[in-house]
């Protein structure tokens, strides 16, 4: 079983400190099946506990990034069995599993190689950065399927594109192409070989001071949730922590010598 799960989510180190995570269910356009969800959760647990990692890239095998949740289980059994309480007990663990990039302590980059649909869009939104291939598309067709959005889309999407554009995507379900996504801020950029480009970005992040990067990710989460004063309070703690590390001296010395610093994470 473990081997089967490892096949569904391929994790490999591409350079020191950088992992590439590939959803590997191309025949279903990387739909979030029960098996794929278990494989993803296992991979995220391993990544979260790996202190050697400094950046992570997530992409999809085949022509799609992720086509969203596999909702076939909704058609199973009697309709009366699908009570809100039972479904909530199913959905919350599913949400939390796929939103794991927000809890990973290092930056996670989505290399959106094709359609990111529904919950697949939310997976991309849960990542810190998103880069798109020219064939990538983004859509949130929840209401067109007869359901409310899930996986925190009502928070993640406005955070990325603003409320007016989030309303349009959620009300109409229209497909946003790569160039428009970049113009909106839904994608950070467009690249022909998006996985390779995202890995280059990840390698650049991996060269930065790792303690500072981890604290910066945590600080951005603090600021977005708590506002201006929370950001100030966090920075008044986090910046002194980094100023007490050996890495700050390496960074300053490298700047004086006009060279790239090599940070040790201490």
Describe the structure.
There is one protein chain. By secondary structure, this protein is α/β, with parallel strands linked by helices. It contains 11 helices and 9 strands. It has helices spanning 2-8, 34-48, 84-98, 119-126, 153-161, 163-172, 178-184, 194-206, 210-226, 228-243, 246-256, and strands at 9-15, 18-23, 55-60, 108-112, 115-117, 129-132, 137-139, 176-177, 189-190. The longest helix has 17 residues, at 210-226. It is globular, with a radius of gyration of 19 Å. The model has no long low-confidence stretch (mean pLDDT 92).
Can you summarize this structure?
With 266 residues, this protein is an alpha/beta fold.
- The side-by-side strand order for the widest beta sheet comes to 1-2-3-4-6-9
Q: Helix segment count?
A: 11
Stretches with pLDDT under 50, minimum 5 residues: none
- Tally the beta strands: 9
Q: What is the element string, with H for helices and E for strands?
A: HEEHEHEEHEEHHEHEHHHH
Shape: globular
Q: Output mean pLDDT.
A: 92
Question: Distance between termini?
Answer: 38 Å
What radius of gyration results from the CA coordinates? Answer: 19 Å
What is the helix content? 40-55%
Strand content: 5-15%
Q: Quickly give the structural class.
A: alpha/beta
Biggest sheet descriptor: 6 strands, mixed
Keywords:
266 residues, alpha/beta, 6-stranded mixed sheet, 3-stranded mixed sheet, 11 helices, 48% helix, globular
What topology does this entry show?
Layout: H1 2-8, E1 9-15, E2 18-23, H2 34-48, E3 55-60, H3 84-98, E4 108-112, E5 115-117, H4 119-126, E6 129-132, E7 137-139, H5 153-161, H6 163-172, E8 176-177, H7 178-184, E9 189-190, H8 194-206, H9 210-226, H10 228-243, H11 246-256
Parallel strand pairs: 2-3, 3-4, 4-6, 5-7, 6-9
Antiparallel strand pairs: 1-2, 7-8
Helix pairs in contact: 1-2, 4-5, 5-6, 9-10
């Amino acid at each position: 079983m473990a081997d089967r799960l490892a096949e569904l989510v391929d994790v490999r180190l591409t350079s020191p400190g950088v992992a590439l995570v590939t959803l590997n269910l191309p025949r279903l356009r990387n739909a979030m099946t029960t098996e794929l969800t278990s494989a993803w959760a296992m991979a995220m647990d391993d990544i979260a506990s790996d202190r050697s990692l400094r950046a992570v890239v997530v992409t999809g095998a085949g022509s799609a990034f992720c086509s969203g949740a596999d909702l076939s289980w909704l058609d199973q059994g009697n309709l009366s069995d699908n009570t809100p309480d039972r479904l909530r007990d199913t959905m919350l663990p599913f949400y939390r599993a796929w939103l794991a990039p927000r809890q990973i302590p290092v930056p996670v980059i989505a290399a959106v190689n094709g359609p990111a649909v529904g919950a697949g869009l939310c997976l991309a939104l849960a990542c810190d950065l998103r880069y798109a291939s020219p064939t990538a598309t983004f859509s949130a067709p929840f209401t067109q399927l007869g359901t409310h959005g899930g996986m925190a889309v009502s928070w993640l999407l406005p955070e990325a594109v603003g409320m007016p554009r989030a309303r349009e995507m959620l009300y109409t379900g229209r497909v946003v192409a790569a160039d428009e996504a970049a113009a909106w801020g839904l994608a950070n950029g467009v690249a022909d070989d998006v996985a390779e480009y995202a890995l280059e970005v990840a390698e650049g992040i991996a060269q930065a001071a790792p303690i500072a990067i981890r604290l910066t990710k945590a600080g951005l989460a603090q600021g977005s949730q708590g506002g201006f004063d929370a950001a100030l309070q966090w920075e008044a703690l986090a910046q002194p922590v980094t100023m007490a590390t050996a890495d700050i001296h390496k960074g300053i010395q490298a700047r004086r010598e006009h060279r790239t610093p090599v940070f040790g994470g201490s």
